[in-house]
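A.,

Following up on our hallway conversation. Structure tokens first:
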């Protein structure tokens, strides 16, 4: 079973943008602390491929990809610490929300090769959204819901 650390790790790796919050009247309000500037805002009306790629690779150049362990990772799995085989079908936008869906389903993986009991969604912004936290301080504000059971 996927644990809460898996969800938190996806959150920090995949989502690094400023997002809106809604007040009681459902009006969109941008919260950006004084002294900071809004770097990116995504309302997720659709999947913006100018900002995001699905999975672990850049959708323009698949040689640009996230992989942390060359021996146990692959195009659809970061490394052996993750149970979820990453598929594009598990990443979608619905009703103004980005959905990174985890499913308990058996899949025969091809990269890496193997049988996996879970599939998962993932996004990245490799070569699309860049900022250097050592040159300027950034703040990160997310509106996130996790389905805890």
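Then the amino acids I'd put at each of the 149 positions:
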């Amino acid at each position: 079973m996927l644990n809460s650390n898996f969800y938190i790790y996806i959150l920090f790796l995949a989502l690094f943008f400023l997002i809106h919050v809604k007040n009681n009247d459902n009006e969109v309000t941008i919260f950006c602390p004084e002294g900071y500037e809004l770097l990116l805002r995504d309302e997720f009306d659709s999947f913006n491929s100018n900002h995001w790629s699905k999975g672990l690779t850049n959708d323009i150049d698949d040689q640009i990809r996230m992989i942390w362990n060359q021996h146990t990772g692959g195009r659809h799995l970061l490394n052996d610490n993750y149970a979820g085989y990453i598929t594009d079908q598990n990443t979608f936008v619905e009703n103004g929300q980005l959905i990174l869906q985890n499913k308990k389903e058996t899949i025969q993986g091809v990269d890496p090769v193997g049988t996996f009991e879970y599939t998962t969604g993932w996004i990245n912004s490799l070569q699309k959204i860049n900022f250097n936290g050592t040159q300027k301080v950034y703040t990160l504000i997310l509106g996130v819901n996790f389905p805890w059971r």
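The mean pLDDT is 74. Curious whether your intuition agrees with the design.

B.
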